[in-house]
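Predict structure. Chain length: 310.
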Amino acid sequence: MTGFAKRWGLRLLEAAITLWLLATLCFVLLRAAPGGPFDAEKAAPPEVQAALAAQYRLDRPLPAQYAAWLGDVARGDLGPSFQYPDYTVNQLVANALPVSALNGGLALLLALLLGVPLGVWSALRAGRWTDRVLMFVAGLGLAVPKFVAAPLLVLLFAVTLHWLPAGGWGEWNNLVLPVIALALPNLAYCARLTRASMLETLSAEYLRAARARGLSEARLLFAHALKPALLPVVAWLSPALINVVTGSAVVEQVFGIPGMGRYFVQGALNRDYTLVLGVVLVVGALIVLINTLVDALRGWMDPRLEAATA
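Prediction complete.
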């Protein structure tokens, strides 16, 4: 129990240091970029500009701004938004996070539900024309970036076929194209990874011995091969989720979805310091949490990994 508590205590410390370094780096880079949040107000009288700077603490020295912002974050206050003066960053994040989580969660679920069976099916038919065709299509899925795939989906299904809306939010059919655009590269990679892992597992000595004892191919697959073959897929979940989070910025912009990615892009373009920093902190915390959960899942599926880190 002591070792377990020590291990998780170190993980929490590493997570806190990682988030602090991420926030500090983002704070410095934002302030170093040319322009400011109220450059459009240059035509305003000097007293108005001074009042805006004082309201948002931009008239203070940079170390004082950093210390004040860090103190607010420690109290759970991400500060006011410069671009959306009627809202705090906490309110914007609270509204946007469920939207991005729904899109990203459905995209990753679709990638797993299709990618794993396709990868297993391809491994069982390794070398045949169906396997070659599937891996070729998966390679295309990896090669096409999201900023190309998303407009192509809009052009095909919204503009040409009129089957689905080109953007917006609020109806179930608004989810279809964004989820597909987010899922495509992950689906392709999941299928290729599952195929490679399954081929390696099927050639293991213990499976040859089990096959020699007369076990059916179905039992070999589901009882002995599938779980170890999925270990690389589980390890891939962390970068897959990060890929979904980073890709949401492009997809949400294309489809006009009010999610975290769109707020991040708009905040960066308008120098909304507090909004960008708030999104970075929340996304960074989610990534740390995801990595921790994936590590725990891998340890449950393969106790040797947990023993190695003990």
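Summary: The radius of gyration is 24 Å.
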